[in-house]
Amino acid sequence: MKLGVCYYPEHWPEEIWADDAARMKALGLTTVRIGEFAWSRIEPEPGRFEWEWLDRAVDTLSGAGMQIIMGTPTATPPKWLIDAYPDVLAKDAHGRVRNFGSRRHYSFSSTTYRRESARIVEAMAQRYGLHPGIVMWQTDNEYGCHDTVESNDDDARAGFRVWLKERYGDVGSLNTAWGTVFWSQEYRSFDEIDPPLATVTEPTPAHVMDWRRFSSDQVAVYNQMQVDVLRQNIGAVDTTHNFMGHFTEFDHYPVAAQVNVSTWDSYPLGFLEMAWWDDQTKLNHMRTGHPDFAAFHHDLYRGMARAGRFGVMEQQPGPVNWAGFNPAPLDGMVRLWSLEAVAHGAELVSYFRWRQAPFAQEQMHAGLNRPDNVADQAYHEAAQVAEDLAALGDIGNAEQADIALVYDYEAHWAHEIQPQSRNFRHDRLTFSFYSALRRLGVNVDVISQHHALDGYKLVLVPSSPMISESFVERAKKSDAHIVAGPRTGSRTENFAIPEALAPGPLQTLMGIKVALAESLRAGAEHAPSGGDDIIWREFIETDLTPLEVSSDGNGTVWQNADLTYLSAWPTEETLIGLVSDLYDGTPIVSKPIEGGLRIRRRGGYIYCLNYGPEAADLDSVLDGSLAGRYVLGSSLLKAGELAVLTAK
Amino acid sequence: MKLGVCYYPEHWPEEIWADDAARMKALGLTTVRIGEFAWSRIEPEPGRFEWEWLDRAVDTLSGAGMQIIMGTPTATPPKWLIDAYPDVLAKDAHGRVRNFGSRRHYSFSSTTYRRESARIVEAMAQRYGLHPGIVMWQTDNEYGCHDTVESNDDDARAGFRVWLKERYGDVGSLNTAWGTVFWSQEYRSFDEIDPPLATVTEPTPAHVMDWRRFSSDQVAVYNQMQVDVLRQNIGAVDTTHNFMGHFTEFDHYPVAAQVNVSTWDSYPLGFLEMAWWDDQTKLNHMRTGHPDFAAFHHDLYRGMARAGRFGVMEQQPGPVNWAGFNPAPLDGMVRLWSLEAVAHGAELVSYFRWRQAPFAQEQMHAGLNRPDNVADQAYHEAAQVAEDLAALGDIGNAEQADIALVYDYEAHWAHEIQPQSRNFRHDRLTFSFYSALRRLGVNVDVISQHHALDGYKLVLVPSSPMISESFVERAKKSDAHIVAGPRTGSRTENFAIPEALAPGPLQTLMGIKVALAESLRAGAEHAPSGGDDIIWREFIETDLTPLEVSSDGNGTVWQNADLTYLSAWPTEETLIGLVSDLYDGTPIVSKPIEGGLRIRRRGGYIYCLNYGPEAADLDSVLDGSLAGRYVLGSSLLKAGELAVLTAK
Amino acid sequence: MKLGVCYYPEHWPEEIWADDAARMKALGLTTVRIGEFAWSRIEPEPGRFEWEWLDRAVDTLSGAGMQIIMGTPTATPPKWLIDAYPDVLAKDAHGRVRNFGSRRHYSFSSTTYRRESARIVEAMAQRYGLHPGIVMWQTDNEYGCHDTVESNDDDARAGFRVWLKERYGDVGSLNTAWGTVFWSQEYRSFDEIDPPLATVTEPTPAHVMDWRRFSSDQVAVYNQMQVDVLRQNIGAVDTTHNFMGHFTEFDHYPVAAQVNVSTWDSYPLGFLEMAWWDDQTKLNHMRTGHPDFAAFHHDLYRGMARAGRFGVMEQQPGPVNWAGFNPAPLDGMVRLWSLEAVAHGAELVSYFRWRQAPFAQEQMHAGLNRPDNVADQAYHEAAQVAEDLAALGDIGNAEQADIALVYDYEAHWAHEIQPQSRNFRHDRLTFSFYSALRRLGVNVDVISQHHALDGYKLVLVPSSPMISESFVERAKKSDAHIVAGPRTGSRTENFAIPEALAPGPLQTLMGIKVALAESLRAGAEHAPSGGDDIIWREFIETDLTPLEVSSDGNGTVWQNADLTYLSAWPTEETLIGLVSDLYDGTPIVSKPIEGGLRIRRRGGYIYCLNYGPEAADLDSVLDGSLAGRYVLGSSLLKAGELAVLTAK
Known about the structure:
alpha/beta, TIM Barrel, Rossmann fold, Immunoglobulin-like, 3 domains, 8-stranded parallel beta barrel, 19 helices
């Protein structure tokens, strides 16, 4: 695995570039990402390019032995471009312009912006495409960040109509698919259809779903455009895009399929603060991040990556500047997060950023070096990671896990469009499945519902309303036991209730029918056995006897041959019990983990990482038959400490 | 009382209409409401009508013996109409268009839409006005739903100016009435006046009050237009409109006076979740609704209906789709809610809807039948209600109650315009009065302040700032004892403090003057004896001795001959004590009810309905002298159970 | 000290003016403010002035012996002016017009409005400038109220560009200063720069800071225009503007420097309810206001006033109408608040308003008289204050205090722009410093960081990121010990991190460097010794040994010679301990005050005011060596009571 760093030569005096490059190299870093916000320096006037400074930066870094990851600068079009082409800017639901002045100020649908983006990407690729120092190209930066997937502009409106025409052929089919007869919304032509925005009350759910699919597709179309331009100019050099954490607003699978390596930006502390966890969890892990945050995203992005090639393009090095509260990581966490990436098969961990910027938006965002160029805590931990990697030597390849977990972007949108319970979130439920698996010490592959199921012993589908017939076919042919959570199979492709009701295509597999679903507020009596503040329960018609029942006698877990269905939002404890029963693979832990310790096996090594807050004793957790020699650390791990053992 | 159902033939294949109709009839249903969202099917292109399908639907239903309630489809103008006449759409306070894509996408003030509405209503009325199968016409659907009473469009602005000119004659009178000299807002002509929207800070309260009166009047003008068109074409057939629960945004009294029957849409669970009750109340009644929700609205709509003719046009049959949490009703509740309507004198209970729709916005809204056409819980309960009605036989007419409660839409607006306490709400206070009365087992008529007071022994006015001289005259002439709550009489018609201060015209009745009013946050010491999280207290100048005082010695209840004034927001317990002292009518209960049991006498029957959560023993509650023979149920009622007895 | 009142002759029948004036005089009032909302009466049509009524009002009041404070009526331009010049109206961040219909409906940047304002001010000043009854002119009313400092209109946009050009000269300097290279925001000319509003995500902090400086400057430019027009017409008569409480949106220091007397509007109860205090504090002081609210603002406005001349232009007399809850003051509080102003050196306390208005927005706002013209509680207390003043006789001049507290508007904006902790507020932290000082009974001057430091023994800088070199120079030359709180010196003038890191210029004074800062959510373990719900801590590089450390051993207080630095958000207790150690001036209290008693020495008197909720015994609090004879009150003070003693 390579270590890298993000660097902005344009932010610093040219005199220090060489020293920066030398220190990167000396620290044990291999890659350096540059360029992704530099458009105004590269093309300061329309059509006038200033390449010289970037040539020198590339040569300086490359000359010092650093491998360059070059970012296309399209996340920040310069002001002159916006002034010349105001149609580049996105608009909000009410049609209000989202102004220049920060970043990501463009609509994915803007035909002007697609042309201008192709132009700048081509110019860069022609200039540097064959430069030997460049090992990878990153398209744009963090697609969708700041709520930018959707835009209510003219191009988007026109594009949506074309997209719908391509999907449905004739408008009658669309009317049928959407059920527009309801509330007299029948369209006579595609030209009558607007985005479902700023309506008087909830718009047609199928209309919204198609708008979200269209908006998501615009991201993929836009990225493919960049990849195409690059490919014509960069030979066989790798491409990537840096995705984000907890981000659900576009379908990542097709975009990941367009690039060679899927990378993501890992900010465990900021996302702990901003996500759904309760206050106590946020306090317990304020300096470590949630024990499963980085791991989940490693598995997610590895699962969608071509040939499983993935990495971390931006690794949090210290406090960030964008959460409600911004603690410093516990000492050791930058190292621990890096080793977690190793344990999951990453080929890159790149720290963001080389040096904390003293100006502009991110001046409170730490780096490897402080603004005064003194090495900061993360610098020393990165050095330690380089040593760790040397100590580990050959870390082997990531192997397919026995267990697959289905992550489904459309499912997330479906529950947002019709939540039916204020708190029902697909990402949260899926994460809860993932945590249960992690506490059992098993390896997990995160996959889409369209992924092959061969080789899996257990496939978990937390909640996929639009589960496909094709999935059911693959499930039947596989040896895997399928566990499907509530609302799975509850909708057709067109966001309607299936003719035979939920769980739709799963009915043929197990003979249950969801007669009724309800959601209750937290604190309700006779609720099923869990769900924290989320109570979702379904009433099942079946000849089967439930495996588990709620306190008022309603079945919550059902099993028939190779399929288990959960008719209630499950607790982590329920999931742990269920997987323990269903999975007979090699054990790693002697009992489910309590607390923040996490363990993953990769190749010949077992990685043990303690996210705290309590200390952990590996001797009491690891299955005795497995534990071998300690290559790093020892059996007693304080919060923030790690150990790596050989596996017997 | 008739049972009915809401049905959308346009949603279903024509092949099943006949079966649907036959099953309705077999279930014991009499009426079926259709048509109210079918405009795009009736007139798919401008001016081209397709009547044939609707002819067949009407004939099929009617042929099966069902009586049809025909809805005018104006709540959902089709897209072609909106595209042809964009001025139909309403605008929000900032002038932003509220787009097509859901329902109620029109401004009540739009002259174009009034013309187009008259056109479609006339076309339907000419086609079906004399069809013998149609027993009632419903205008539009749920006026005002989704915050649609107000619109800041050009027609509304122009209409407001005309309305003001009619009200005030000359602009000088308006300036005086509004007090525009304050903050230099004097107008030189009506043409200078805009809606009081998107202002820098609070606009003039009298300006806002008149805007709300105008907006409310637009609803009445619009409805009258529909009624007029109908009346010219439908002979003597009844008209109705389906009002909503907890809805205060327009004055319902004049609209109710325009139609023959006042109906409303009863969704006890959704409204429990969305209204002001605390979490424990919401948990206690999550499957039953608040024990007084349906009863209050029955009394409200009966009170405003011509000749007291009212009913439920839409009765919740199972979980709905629009609250934050959507539980299934407790088994038996659909029956219980239906019998509550019987107890209050309804002439119709119509279930919404015949069959759950598998597509579009309401696919999570239950019906009598599931989407797969299997009878759902509500179907069986509706059948039970049909049996119950048969068992009861002659249920008699609803009689005038001894006690009247004044519900005052303008009062609600007045407190919204100048709350003076974050939590002070007219609807909430009025509901609290109502609950106190219900816990005493007494019958209540809900009336406007303009209603005749003859025959009442007790008239309660929870909080009517603009109580009229006319009310005081009627009160003097009546035999009723008047109980007036805080802020009653505190404003003139023009939203000013009366010259002699509050309680304004009531001063002549009892000789008190409100010297000062204050609101305190919850938890304040020395607060008056109640008010939960609402503390409102007034300091009174008077020669009277208070009946009750707060812990710091401030009078909270005052009485003089036939008038009682409450100078603090009262608790339910205070109200129960007060009414117990003041009312000497026939007792129904031996002591105030604790818990969710509710009792109402109508005709020769006593209806006992347990909204839970605890079981109730009627023997310990009913006044011994009254209880007769059990026609339905028995004395021990679990949550959700009911009994009907003959009254001795 | 003079007592006064605010009066609106245009609101009342002319017949009662003379009686009003006579009663004012009889009550002991000296001044009466009029005119500030009367534009539509003065100029009812464009260019047509009606002076006669105002002539009569002035003569009536003046004739009765009242001294008139005349307000310019520019806070409420009339409707005809807005209709003629719609560009007067301000626009919100999205460019939406903020409509006519309340007050302050203008943009400070509007060139049209500057012209029209000059016109009306000149007309009034020419009419009344030399009238002997007028003793002061007030410009406009409460600049900035209702979020009106910023406006996104065309004039503001154009003005901002000019302002930037003046500040930076060439656009390259601006690019460097703002760091626009970050995110490709480099500008090629000033004409490309827009206000940093409605951007996709956070705009450049230096861009926002300059926008706020520009917007603040517009207030000063606007006020200077009025002062200039007045000065040409009113001879040597005093000018003033009435500022507000807790208001931070523009820099008050330059505006205060333009007028002769700085006055402010004191509403202790409304601001208690709306500010940051916790629920218990709000309950404790709901009828008294926070014990330090009025005192702090007295010291703030005295500190910025020319020659220390300040006063209260509007004193709350009873419940107000604009907070979430609006209690009546405890009896005695109007007197107590008035004496607090005396204790701080005010030259005026003017009650708002003479009589409660029965109409328009403020009809729930109390006055000295009720709407029915009966004297209200505040009337009687004002009479008592007049007696108190007579009893006190010569109250002496306000002297410079030994201790200065720096209040820094730009610092407030800086923390709003980059809070880094959800709860970090400059005004709140500064107030907490002030409360600590008050509990020690010491006098405090509130000053800007540009103020002379001569004569101070202790200067407290709660949190000034942009502390200047000039301040450091003055500090060095002074004898004062400087206490600087967290984040002081953490930014340059251009909102960048100083080259040598925080505390910037303070490093030369004491040899510490802030290596890292973090913010934690409430409840975090190992937090420093306080901060309520705010945890901010910094890690210090230094050779010094900390004076105090947090529970995990991190230094929180550092001292070197004459400088103390707090590297964590301090509790009041920490501050009290610190100041007790550092300050060796004459003691007033024998130990820090617990509870709501407050004490201030001015001239030969000691003022003791009990804000409750508990009673206080002065004998146990006052330093024995000081207490002399009681001129008012006695040693035992119930909540709301006061005493004034001679000082030994």
